[in-house]
Each structure stands twice: as C-alpha cells, then as structure tokens.
Design brief:
single chain; mainly beta; Immunoglobulin-like; six-stranded mixed β-sheet; 5 helices; 32 strands; nitrate assimilation; FAD; oxidoreductase; Cu-oxidase_fam
C-alpha cells in the first residue's frame, strides 16, 4: 500500500509539472481606491544619466550548445546562456535598456538588488511586460556591493527555464581577493536515446532511494531534469577555473535553477564571505559540503595551492557536475581526499551585521504557512500560502517604517526557497530556537517541517513580491505581496499586455 501511494504521488507530480509551464492562468487584480494614493511610477530614484554605466540587453532566441553534442533552442539575453555579465562599482548609476526580439513579452528583475519599486521588473505589479519589438530602460543606483543576478519575471517558470538570466556584480570599493570568478548553476530536461529524461533516469533514481538522500526536499524538480550545467555548459564542456598559486580566489555562486545544489570542494578549505549580497565576517575555514538553494547567492574564498582539484555535485540522486580548478603550472593529478561529508549550516557561516537588536518589537505580524494541495492550479497541484494561491493570497499590508515579523512554517514535503523583493530580512529563530548569530538575507530555503521567524523594516515603499523561488511553485500559487499603505499599482495582471508575474 505504501509503495502504491508513493508511485501515485510521484506519477501525479510528473503529470502535473510537465504541463504547468505552458498553460496560462487568469489573474484578476483586486480593485483599489486610488484616490489620495501614490502611484508606483512616482517612486523612482533620481539617477545621474550623464555619469551612468549604460548597457543594452536584447532578449532573443538562439541555438545554444550545452556541450559539443547537445544543442538547445534557448531564450537568451544577448545571445548567450547565461546572459552577458553586468559588472559595476558600488555607488554607480546604472542604465540598462532591454530590447525584446522574442515573440512573447519579457522583463528584467534585478534579483536581490535594493532599488526603487518601478525598476523591480514584475509585470502587472511594477510595470507592463515589454512587448515583442519594444524596449524598456531600467535605471537605478547600485547601492550595495555584492553578488546578484537578473532574470525575466514574466512567466518566469518558463522563461528563466529557457535561459533568460545573467549575473549582476557590484564590486566592493576595497577588495579582499586577487581573482574573482562567477559560477551560475542550472538544470535542463534533455531526452536521450536510453530513455533517461524525466521518465527514465530520474524516475529510476527516485525509486532506487533518491528520495531518501539530500535532494528529497526538491524531488519534484529532480524528476523533471536530468542535466546540470554551470555557466551554460555541461560535462566536459564546462570551462575550468584557472587560478595562480597562493592567490586568494573569490567564487561568486548563483543558483538560477529550481533545485538546490550541494557542492563538494574535494577537501579544499574555503570560507563563506558573502550571502545574498551581504558580507559574512569571521567565518571559519571548512571543507564541508555547501548547499545553494534556488535563487540564492553565496560567495566563498579560498587560497590557491599548487594542486588541481574539482568542485562536484554531491547529491546522491545520480546528478553529475564537475568544475575543474586548475592552478597554472600545476602538473595536475593531485586531487585532495578526506572531504567532510556533512553540510555547512547557515548558522556556521560566520557573523553578519544585524539589522535589529534583540529587543525589537514588531508593528506587523504575519503567519505564513507553506503548503501543497490538490486544486484548480495548472493541472491540479496548488502551492499555497495559508491555503490560498496567488492572487488570492492575503497581502502583507504595511506602513513605511513598520517593523514586520513573518513566521514561516513549511507543512509540505518539498523545499520552498522564499524570496522577498526590495528588502533584506533578519532571521531571528529556526524551529523555535533563537539564533546565536543573526543572519541577514533576502532568501531562505524552508525545508519540509522547518519554521523560521524573520523580521524586516518596511523602508522601501511600493508593492513587493514575496514568493517561492522554485518558480514552478510560484507559478502554481506560492506568491504574496508586501503592499505599502498609500501606494497603488496602475498595472493590471493579464490584460492586453499579458502581464504574468510568475
């Protein structure tokens, strides 16, 4: 009976998720009384256009080679997957013009960047989606140094999956490292002659015990995809990272996929120095496995030695990913041994500058129960917040200056990496236990059975999404909005611009 239930659950998930990317749901916004309120369009920051760093990003379809034998039809920014790296200095004014040469509307969301609401790139909430043949210019100041990324927020479960993402790096004024490398992780669903694909290799991995491994919280994603990539390449086509002996190397790691990555550093010691664009200080050196949740960014630093080694995927579900680290002049073949097989926990990263002291009292409290149920969403599976799906989820209504506490609980069997736009939050407790070292993030992966208490200050007026960054979950309902009182959006979901924010 248990095996039958397990099979039916897995089969149901596969059936539902294969169809959820292409269908369109009707989203009807709540009508608001706009009298006396401020439009989101009036909240833009002043940008010095004369001194701004300017970039042009074109959304277009291209054939992309994942490796020498695998070509896909990808949606790209400037013809590559990932899109062109945008790198600026802290304090720079930035202007990015998006040209849309696709047949569908697109946007750019600046993931993790603290900017004004009109530049957030969420169709139907902060702008209208950019129509085929049209353009839109994003203007903002790169206020905080850190590792960020940009991606489409129009039908994002489909468009990010097809390749519409790229790195956005804001460099520190004073650097602690000699070399700076960016790694963007993703996964793809490819067919193969041996029946691997979703219904072959991955399903076999699940039935052979993969559900009991580290990937069990994102088993739905592991059933959908069978090929991992880094910087748009897979297998032997992954470009090795070239380093010099004794130099300090910073790796900026971004997870653009829908499954968490669990990385082994082959016994090489490293230190976490950044998380979600915030500095991590005084972290201990470690060789433990490192998890990176969907949408999360983690910076690590290590001292290059004379030997060559690899960063590898450590999930026990049959995933295969290997990134060569090559020291110039090394003869190679000196791979390390004795890696720590335990996972580095958030609380072990190091210290972060807290947003609040221990005695802060919230002005607004919101209980966020994360669930999964059968419903009317995209073939039958609904991902819910307090038993509701977007746009029917209850908003988090705030006044500017409010201290907001959100109590998140995951009652489902799947991971939910929850991401808040436009704000950083402080994690106060996990599973009811107060953290000794507060963490400051914009995304927290809430695993099955876990609960977190977070607090943030409502200091950036507008309408800001708070959603799961497994974008299939978001597309099927796990979204709410932090709405500032006295602010309204002039944009509508769906309508003639086909605004679909997830």
């Amino acid at each position: 009976m248990v095996k039958k239930m397990l099979f039916l659950t897995i089969f149901g998930l596969v059936f539902i998720l294969t169809g959820c990317q292409d269908s369109v749901k009707e989203l009807i916004p709540e009508k608001e009384n706009q009298k006396g309120k401020t439009s989101i369009t009036e909240l833009a920051d002043h940008v010095n256009k004369e001194n701004a760093k300017e970039f042009t990003i074109t959304a277009q379809e291209e054939e992309w080679h994942l490796d020498q034998n695998t070509t896909i039809n990808a949606w790209t920014y400037n013809g590559t997957v990932p899109g062109e790296e945008i790198r600026v200095q802290q304090g720079d004014s930035v202007r990015v013009t998006l040209n849309n040469e696709l047949d569908e509307p697109v946007t750019i969301h600046w993931h993790g960047v603290m900017l004004s609401n009109p530049m957030d790139g969420v169709p139907g909430v902060t702008q209208n989606a950019v129509q085929p043949g049209k353009s839109f210019t994003y203007e903002f100041v790169a206020q905080e140094a850190g590792t960020y990324w940009y991606h489409s927020h129009q039908q994002s479960s489909k468009q990010v999956d097809k390749g519409l993402y790229g790195p956005f790096i804001v460099e520190e004024k004073q650097k602690s490292y000699d070399a700076d490398k960016v790694l963007i992780f993703d996964e793809w669903a490819l067919n193969d002659s041996e029946g691997g694909g979703m219904m072959g290799g991955k399903m076999k991995g699940m039935m052979d015990g993969g559900m009991g491994g580290r990937g069990n919280g994102d088993m739905d994603t592991h059933m959908m995809y069978n090929t991992l990539s880094v910087n748009g390449k897979t297998g032997n086509s992954i470009t090795p990272i070239q380093v010099k002996e004794n130099e300090t190397v910073r790796l900026r790691m971004i997870n653009a996929g829908y499954a968490k990555r669990t990385l082994s550093f082959d016994g090489q010691e490293y230190r976490v120095v950044g998380n979600d664009g915030k500095a991590v200080n005084n972290g201990d050196k470690t060789s433990k496995l490192l998890e990176i949740a969907p949408g999360e960014r983690i910076d690590v630093e290590f001292s290059a030695t004379s030997s060559s080694w690899t960063i590898e995927e450590a999930n026990d579900d049959g995933s295969d990913l290997s990134i060569p680290i090559q020291t110039k002049g090394s003869a190679g073949g000196e791979n390390r041994s004795g890696s720590d097989s335990s996972v580095l926990e958030y609380t072990e990263y190091g210290s972060m500058t807290p947003l609040f002291d221990d005695n802060v009292s919230p002005d607004v409290e919101y209980n966020m129960n994360l669930g999964v149920s059968m419903g009317m969403m995209q073939g039958g599976m609904a991902f819910t917040i307090n038993d509701e799906t977007f746009p029917d989820t209850e908003n988090i209504n705030v006044e500017k200056g409010d201290i907001v506490r959100v109590n998140m609980t995951n009652d489902s069997m799947l991971d939910h990496p929850m991401h808040l736009h436009g704000h950083h939050f402080q994690i106060v407790s996990k599973n009811g236990k107060k953290l000794d070292k507060p963490l400051v993030k914009d995304l927290i992966n809430v695993k099955p059975g876990e609960s977190y208490e977070i607090i943030f200050k409502a200091n950036n007026p507008g309408h800001w999404l708070f959603h799961c960054h497994d974008l299939v979950h978001a597309n099927n309902g796990m979204v709410t909005i932090v709405k500032y009182n006295g602010v309204y959006s002039p944009f509508a979901l769906e309508g003639r611009f086909n605004n679909q924010p997830e």
